[in-house]
Structures are given as C-alpha cells and as structure tokens.
Recover the amino acids of this structure.
C-alpha cells in the first residue's frame, strides 16, 4: 500500500521509526510531516495527509502528534476523511473493520514505540467488514453532504 504519514514537532522520532517499520512491512511511505523538532502547528500536517487520503493519492494515512487528537481533528475537517485516534490494538483493527477509518492517529506522548508499531500493524492488517457497517459509514458521509458543500 501507499501510505501517507504526518506529524508535528512532538513526534519526529516516532514518525521516523514508524516510517521505517511500515516500509519493513513492504509498504511505500509518503512523508507529509515535519522533520525538525522546531515548534510547529499540527493542523497543517493533519490537513496535508487528509487531502492526500481524500484525493486517493494514497491508500490510507498515519498521523502522530503529542496526543494524536489535534492532528486527527484537523484531518477530519477534510471531506471524506475518517481519522481515528487509537491507543490500543483492539481499537486499531475495529476502526478499520467497523468504521472504515482511512487514517489512524496516535500520540507520541501517549504510546510507546512498540505499542505504536502494534497499533499500526493491527490497523493495516484489518479489512472493512461492510454490510451493516457500510450503512453506518454512509450515514457519516451523508452528514457531510447534508451540511457542507
Ligand atoms: C503540541 O505541543 C501538542 O499540542 C500537539 O502535539 C498535540 O498533542 C495536539 O493535540
């Protein structure tokens, strides 16, 4: 798969390690994040990855900030994005299976590197289950379509 990754200053080291890990699994990684620890603004990186995912330039995205929350909130403002914050592997596979999340997010200040790798692997190995879950994911898209042009 082709996977976009994005991060702010709090997650440069974790982004580098997760990128290498994802490549070791056989995937291509496109880096949209900052590569320095100079203070920056996470919405910029959430938006960049969100746009790449929504435009289908990549298959899915990984976002990392201090908590995973700010950067995922920004990505979720891009139409078509379903970014989910995960701190455990069960949530990581369920957000794909049930919610068809197209971006997974986590916090460099919240999870350690080994847990982060396990979260990413659980997400990437999972498949969307469709059926009743598809109806509900479609309902999320309809909220966007009803309320925002
Ligand atoms: C940056 O200090 C921090 O606020 C950011 O990485 C993130 O945790 C926001 O949600």
């Amino acid at each position: 798969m082709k996977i976009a990754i994005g991060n702010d200053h709090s997650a440069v080291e974790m982004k580098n390690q997760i990128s290498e890990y994802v490549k070791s699994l056989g995937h291509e990684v496109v880096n949209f994040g900052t590569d320095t620890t100079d203070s920056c603004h996470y919405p910029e990186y959430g938006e960049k990855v969100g746009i790449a995912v929504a435009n289908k330039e990549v298959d899915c995205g990984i976002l990392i900030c201090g908590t995973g929350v700010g950067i995922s909130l920004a990505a979720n403002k891009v139409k078509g994005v379903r970014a989910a914050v995960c701190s455990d592997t069960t949530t990581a596979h369920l957000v794909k299976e049930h919610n068809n999340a197209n971006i997974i997010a986590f916090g460099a200040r919240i999870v350690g590197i080994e847990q982060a790798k396990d979260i990413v692997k659980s997400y990437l190995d999972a498949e969307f289950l469709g059926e009743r879950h598809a109806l509900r994911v479609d309902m999320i898209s309809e909220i966007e379509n009803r309320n925002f042009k």
Remarks:
- Strands lie at 2-7, 28-31, 60-65, 83-85, 103-107.
- The pocket of D-ribose is lined by residues 8, 10, 42, 65-67, 69-70 (CB under 6 Å).
- The chain has a mean pLDDT of 97.
- Residues 18 and 106 are 11 Å apart (CA to CA).
